[in-house]
Amino acid sequence: MNSPVDQCEAEKTSWIKIVKKYNHPNPLKSWLQFLLNLFLYSIAWFLMYESLSLSYWITLGLSIPAAGMLIRLFIIYHDCGHGSYFKSRKLRDAMGIFIGILTFTPYFSWSHNHLVHHETAGNLDNRGIGDVWTMTVSEYKESSLWGKILYRFYRNPVTMFGIGPLYVFLIGNRFTKKGMDKKGRMGVYLTNAGLILFAASMSLLLGVKAFLLIQFPVIYLAGILGFWLFYVQHQFDPSYWERTETWNYEKVALEGSSYYKLPRILQYFTGNIGFHHIHHLSPLIPNYYLSRCHHENSLFNKVVPLKFWQSLKTVTFRLWNEKTREMISFRKMKFT
Q1: Model's pTM, two decimal places?
Q2: What's the domain range around 53?
């Protein structure tokens, strides 16, 4: 009979062997996906411009698929940062910088913070970089009055999904941060320069008013949906949070990263990122292989899916209860 240690090692070997089959990008798939997404996003932009002379309600309606295509481009940007989209680092960086201008997000600094997120997700002793601010019940109770007010403001859905995207994409991403390395700072300057060039060119071509009437709803809606996706990927129940000494890479991927089972059309617009458990298990898998990896391997049958309507309940989650090992609301905290 195998010891628990031997069994653990066997399971680890099993999933490593599985994901290795999908860890290699297909250059043709990558280029086709990128070019098709860019083409469809451009078409959506063109149709929004044409609709301005008809009705702005039509323009706003067209901003929905445009935002969806921008999210798909962001997933490609995200894959470039993980090194999973092309083998060539120069090509990945060039594409990441380009998409970063379209998404108002500096490539190098965002990718760095996101890699830190992957290394620390679900670790209660390593929170604060590239994640959603999450307090434990005891931490919240021990906070000052100002700390509690600030945390409640941050976790309020209006702040997180309404104000947050506006601040991050329009303001926060425009500035360098303390501790940012030279590459990260240059990335911010490069993105800002690209945005100025993009805005100036489109304003000269279409007019300043037309540019703003098109770009603002697209980036805002994409930002809201992007924030929601990132939130629901780790803020669900049952989930996984541990202290460093008991933190486990496989468990945080399969138990602490959601399998967000979306309708087919939403899965398309979100670039398969709903298979977030697979992505955290192996960030080297390109987005177009995530679904295939999940469905072709029985190892993932035990992963409980988070369905769309079920996911809406997660907006009530505010704190991690270390005693009961669950995400809870402020209201439920009163009874703990």
Answers
A1: 0.92
A2: 4-333
